[in-house]
Amino acid sequence: MGNCGTREESAVVANAQVQQLNSFSPSVKNASSDKKHNRSFSDLSDPSTPKNVDDSRKNALLDNVIAFTLFELETITKSFRTDYILGEGGFGTVYKGYIDENVRVGLKSLPVAVKVLNKQGLQGHREWLTEVNFLGQLRHPNLVKLIGYCCEDDHRLLVYEFMFRGSLENHLFRKTAIPLPWATRMMIALGAAKGLAFLHNAERPVIYRDFKTSNILLDSDYTARLSDFGLAKAGPQGDETHVSTRVMGTYGYAAPEYVMTGHLTARSDVYSFGVVLLELLTGRKSVDKTRPSKEQSLVDWARPKLNDKRKLLQIIDPRLEDQYPVKAAQKACSLAYYCLSQNPKARPLMSDVVETLEPLQSSGASDVPTESLIALPDHRMHRRFAGSGAGCRSPNPNYSPGGPTACRVR
């Protein structure tokens, strides 16, 4: 069978193809096991996306993406060679590759990342299709760009622009990684916030639902781009206050009210953003079982300190070696405090988060590490707070900053 839903095919595919698309589903593992391993898990009953690629094409959603053949993607990854692997996740394995006119006439020369669905993995056809649908129609500088897809027999693949510096997770937590400077961390936080704000303010709002450091990819300039939209969900419309759904996401990042009730709102994403901002500020993982019991949950350990002027700066990543603007750190900690509020209505909107982070951007944001670029297989691939403060943290251990400034919420 050839590619399903290619540009050359008619709007309606043969019944056998449609049946095959709709019948392909993953094996879903026990949710408690997923939480134990801090992995995402999927909701196969989610009806918010079209049932097949052709439904999307009839809705003109996929005009900007390329339908690749399996042979073409095997060619650019050297038959998915192990030394071409960039990483692995709940969806499957990601390979590096390079497309140009040798692959197909008219293709722009471009390094790409090819994500291959693991047929025995935690995600399946529905998540693959959700990602195609959302990224096929959404374009923003802080969202990863979907170049194309492949749907051939039971093979499901996605092709993205290649992000040279990999994930934020690796830069924050890999032992061999050079610590990110303060300015770079704030630049990444702002970029990720802009991506979420764009989704929340779309004509039909989108709730990302799996915001975490491993899903924030960085280009060569450390610009943040959100990736992996397999768990994204269309937001509430009209008089609806929330979307009811089975609880999904990643342990340590999901908002508490969503975990308890299954009620999903944009404020659920705001909580997850607060967790990531806390990871950027502290250099600690959201959940770390290697730490003492009272410090294993980052939010439980750090949030009380965010509102204590005597302890506020004690949680900042020691690898920064006090090289950060004190007032900016105070503002960022206060922002994290409000994003992590137990009351969803007390959390700021992502548009407010963007306005809060913009003044915190330092002129030193271009001072970023040059190491850790991901190797490519071809030589061709070779405002709701005022001010940010300019002074670095005082070496005086008795320095006592003021308490967090209130964040305006709606």
From TrEMBL:
Residue span, Protein kinase domain: 80-361
Family indicated by similarity: Belongs to the protein kinase superfamily.
Organism: Macleaya cordata
EC number annotated for this UniProt entry: 2.7.11.1
CDD domains in alphabetical order: STKc_IRAK
KW Electron transport (keyword) present: no
UniProt entry tagged with the keyword ATP-binding: yes
Gene Ontology terms for molecular function: ATP binding; protein serine/threonine kinase activity
Record's keyword terms, sorted: ATP-binding, Kinase, Nucleotide-binding, Plant defense, Serine/threonine-protein kinase, Transferase
Binding sites annotated in the UniProt record for ATP: K115
UniProt-listed Pfam families: PK_Tyr_Ser-Thr
Polar residues bias spans: 41-51
Region Disordered: start-end pairs: 23-55, 387-410
UniProt GO BP: defense response
Protein name: non-specific serine/threonine protein kinase
